[in-house]
UniProtKB/TrEMBL annotation:
Location(s), subcellular: Cytoplasm
InterPro entries reported for this sequence: Rossmann-like_a/b/a_fold (IPR014729), tRNA(Met)_cyd_acetate_ligase (IPR008513)
Annotated keywords: ATP-binding, Cytoplasm, Ligase, Nucleotide-binding, RNA-binding, tRNA processing, tRNA-binding
Annotated SUPFAM superfamilies: Nucleotidylyl transferase
Function, as annotated: Catalyzes the formation of N(4)-acetylcytidine (ac(4)C) at the wobble position of elongator tRNA(Met), using acetate and ATP as substrates. First activates an acetate ion to form acetyladenylate (Ac-AMP) and then transfers the acetyl group to tRNA to form ac(4)C34.
GO biological process: tRNA modification
Enzyme Commission designation: 6.3.4.-
Pfam families, per database record: HIGH_NTase1 (PF05636)
Entry superkingdom: Bacteria
GO cellular component: cytoplasm
Top-level taxonomy: Bacteria, Bacillati, Bacillota, Bacilli, Bacillales
Protein name according to UniProt: tRNA(Met) cytidine acetate ligase
Chain residues that bind ATP: 7-20, 101, 164, 189-190
Entry's Gene Ontology molecular function annotations: ATP binding; ligase activity, forming carbon-nitrogen bonds; tRNA binding
Organism: Viridibacillus arvi
Length: 403
């Protein structure tokens, strides 16, 4: 059985994701598509729009055969560590291919860029350090250094200023780093860019555009044409049973409380909080009645919106530098859902997996898993309020979804 893996957030699952799964299956002749999906907090430092089980159902209804969780420590990390978690799990599950969407749409420039940066790594790292000293962010420093290293020859190189290209590059880098036999495939992203708003004459929109439209209209009706029917029904069900969709604006009262209750010295202990920004975070939280006004006070050339949000995610969940440094590699495969085809794959291949499968949270006390469970409870608390105790401990109460 040919297995192709994808590393995803599906926040929420839309027609662009459907295109990616279908094309990935076609390009690799896959019998099985395995999705490693982020849980309740995401790579850009945001709460997920809907919970991981709702997004699992969306994925299984639209072409994924297995959905497993990308642990919190990797799901909320910068691109290189996000890639490390995802690729390690796909490799452990004996995938033949991994497929990612990119602005480039052609794998050759990625491979050329990887070879170039491997050969010039010492020079690259020094150039990045020099660029950061000017006050720019790490992604900007990487792209600046990279552009200076690109030779003028007939080879094509990937544009590393594009968000999906950057992730794709790190996927390839990680697969090589762990000496995996898994092969890389990329699918051209169609029409909508990562941050684009929805367009009335299209059926493709970014997840960012879809979320934006729902919040602005306070309705999901405007986005029905941009999603598979099962995904739209999932949002309908969520709307009926929850106070709100997940966002930092919704979480702001609890997040603000969490920041203010700590001293600057305590805030500095949380992962990614560096260089004295804890004083600014505390002052801005005291002065801001909304999340947007808080971010406008904190964001700068040095600290991007995404980097700040990742700090806030770790403050909100209590994830410290000590916790971060204690995790070296993914230690399990957390099963969220499967089709019958996926179940057959597990029955056939799990003896070859290099990580244990966890289908019941109660069967393990792994520290990395405990962090995922803790994050789920805080996510549910922020959405449902303290009176709704039914949503506490959902990781223990929810078995893998079967389709």
């Amino acid at each position: 059985m040919i297995a192709t893996g994808v590393i995803v957030e599906y926040n929420p699952f839309h027609n662009g994701h459907l295109h990616h799964i279908r094309q990935s299956r076609k390009e690799t002749n896959a019998d099985i598509v395995i999705a490693v999906m982020s849980g309740h907090f995401l790579q850009r430092g945001e709460p997920s729009f809907v919970d991981k089980w709702t997004r699992t159902k969306m994925a299984l209804a639209s072409g994924a055969d297995l959905v497993v969780e990308l642990p919190y420590v990797y799901a909320t990390a910068q691109a290189s560590d996000f890639a490390k978690g995802g690729i390690s799990i796909l490799d452990a599950m004996c995938c033949d291919y991994f497929s990612f969407g990119s602005e480039e749409g052609n794998i050759t420039p990625f491979l050329n860029s990887y070879s170039l940066l491997q050969e010039q790594n010492d020079t690259l790292q020094q150039m990045i350090r020099d660029a950061i000293q000017t006050g720019i962010s790490y992604p900007q420093a990487l792209n600046t250094a990279y552009k200076q290293l690109i030779p003028t020859n007939e080879l094509s190189f990937v544009d590393l200023s594009k968000p999906n290209n950057i992730l794709g590059f790190h996927y390839i880098e990680e697969a090589n780093k762990i000496h995996s036999n898994i092969k890389a495939v990329t699918i051209q992203r169609i029409k909508a860019g990562y941050h684009d708003a929805i367009e009335a004459d299209s059926t493709i929109a970014s997840a960012t555009g879809i979320r934006q439209a729902i919040f602005e209209e306070n309705s999901i009706d405007a986005i029905v044409s941009y999603m598979p029917l099962d995904s739209f029904k999932g949002l309908e069900e969520w709307r009926k049973s929850n106070i709100s969709f997940g966002s930092w604006e919704t979480f702001w009262p609890l997040l603000r409380f969490t920041i203010i209750r700590h001293t600057p010295q305590e805030l500095a202990n949380f992962a990614e909080v560096t260089e004295g920004i804890e004083y600014l975070l505390l002052r801005a939280a005291r002065e801001s009645e909304s999340f947007v006004s808080f971010m406008q006070k904190v964001k700068s050339k040095r600290y991007t919106w995404t980097r700040i949000q990742r700090m806030l995610t770790h403050i909100f969940t209590g994830f410290t530098w000590e916790c971060l440094k204690s995790f070296k590699q993914p230690s399990y495969i957390r099963l969220l859902g499967m089709t019958r085809n996926g179940q057959n794959y597990l029955s056939t291949k799990k003896k070859d997996f290099t990580l244990p499968i966890i289908s019941r949270a109660a069967s393990s006390n792994d520290a990395m898993l405990m962090q995922d469970i803790h994050a789920t409870d805080l996510y549910m608390l922020a959405l449902s309020g303290p009176a709704n105790t039914k949503r506490m401990g959902l990781d223990y109460k929810t078995p893998p979804i079967r389709v």
